[in-house]
Please model this.
Amino acid sequence: MAQRISRNTFKMDMPPTIHSYAAIVGKKEGDGPLHRHFDQIYQDTHFGQDSWEKAESELLRLTVMKALEKGNISKEDVNYMFAGDLLNQCTTTSYGLRDLEIPVLCVYGACSTMAESLLLAALMTDSGIGGNVVAATSSHFCSAERQFRFPLSYGGVRTPTAQWTCTASGAAVVTPHEKQGPHIKGVTIGRIVDMGVCDANNMGAAMAPAAAYVIESYLNDTGMKPEDFDLIITGDLGRVGGTLLIELLAGDGLNIAPRYKDCGTMMFDYEKQDVHAGGSGCGCSAAVLCGYFLDKVRSGEYKNILFCATGALMSPTMSQQGESIPGISHAVHISRD
Model:
C-alpha cells in the first residue's frame, strides 16, 4: 500500500513494475536523433486512415497493442487502462481503444498526460485494486493544429517560441512488483500553477512554473536532492521553458542543470529540422520515456530518474477571450531497483 508522506506525495512500499512499454512515432520524429529507440516509425502519418483524428486513434491503438505484445500480455489480462490525449472529449482515446473492451478511465492533463496516467496506474496497482494496468497517451501534429491553431492549408507563420506537436504515442504496462525493474518508487500529484502567460505560442513559459513546483515538492517531501537522480526529466518545455525552469529552481537553491533533460529538446534535430523551440504534445514525453529512458533504466545505465511531464491547460476559446494559460506537471520517480 502506498505511503502518503504529504498532501500530494506518495511512496510505494512494494513499487509497481513497468513490465513492458512501447513507442511509435511518425516520419518527422523518426528522422530525429532518437530514431533507433522507437518500436516503429510510420512514413504514412495518416496511419492508413482518412482523417487526422482517425490517424491518431490508430496510432494510440497500435502502441497499446505493441506494449502488450512486448510484455506477452493479452488484452484480456489487462484490468484497467488510464489513457488520454489532446483532443476534445479525449476523442483519440475513446475511438482508438473502444474495440479493446478493457475498462478504461480517460484522463486529461494536456502534455502532462503520460505522467498523470502512469501515476494513477502505479497508485491503483500498489493499492491492490489493479493488476495489470496500462498507461498510455498520444498526440498528432495535424489533429492538434486543426484543434488548437489553424488548418494546415492556412500557412500561418510560427513564432520563435512555438513548439512542434509530435506525432507520437507511448504506452506502458504497470504490474504488481516484480524483481526486475523499472519500478515506480514514488509520485507527486501536481497542482495548477498560473503565472499569467497569455501567449499560446509560448507554452514552455506557461508550463515551467508548474514543473518547478512539482520537482521541488517531490524533493522536499522525500528528503531527496537533485544529485540523488541520474536525470530529472520534463515533458516538453522546449528550449524556452527548460531554461526558465532551471532559473526558477536555482532561485530556490536547487541546481538541476547538470542532470536536466527535456523530451521536447531531445525529439528533434534543431539544425536539420525546423521545430523552433522544440517538440510538444503529450505523445512527445510518452514516446521519449517509453522509447529511450525506460530502456536505460532497465539496463542499469540510469538507476533513478524523476519524470515530470508538463501540460499547458489551454483552450482556444479561453485564449480568444484573453485568458492566461494554466500549467500542470506531475512527478513519477522511476528506479532500477
